[in-house]
Amino acid sequence: MATRRGPAPNPNSVRRNTTHALGEQKLSGTAGAGRELPKALGISTGAAKRFWKTWAKAPQTEGWLETDWAELELTTKLVDLFYQGDTKLAGEIRQRVGRWGATTEDRARLRMSFDKQVEAEAKKPETASETDMDAELYKLLSEG
User: Fold this and answer.
1) Is 16 inside any structural domain?
2) What pTM does this model have?
């Protein structure tokens, strides 16, 4: 039988740190207007162009500043290099998109939440471009 160390917890205790210092970020869940892919980046792969299009119109970009867009440009260039065969960049890309709330887990950590409309969009069937992207990634990874 384990013995308890220290005083017993107060049964009427109240948690005082219920809010996060940065607060919760509520997003509309609707796709934004986005931006055009800068031609000066020299993006050559279709996957990197789809990556830009996806993130440029993502709900997370609602409040982005110029520095955030510059970060998307850099990350898109890394994605382009990844799809050209430099698979060592996968970890760096994952870290960068994680800071934007790419996955459910990332959004929970960042305290992001969406309106109900996002749930409806998630139930839509997969589009052809997503299938092409999966096939392209499979081909890239199976070559090595």
Assistant:
1) no
2) 0.64
**Domains identified in the chain, total number:** 1
Contact 45, 77 (CB under 8 A): no
Compute and round to an integer the Cα radius of gyration of the chain.
Answer: 21
Q: Which of helix, strand or coil describes residue 55?
A: helix
pLDDT in tens, 105-122: 988 888 877 765 555 555
Host domain of residue 82: 25-143
Q: What is the DSSP string of 104-135?
A: HHHHHHTTEEE-THHHHHHTSPPPHHHHHHHH
Taking residue 21's Cβ as centre, other Cβ atoms within 10 Å add up to: 5
Which residue is listed with tokens 């830009």?
52
- Which residue is listed with tokens 């060592």? 88
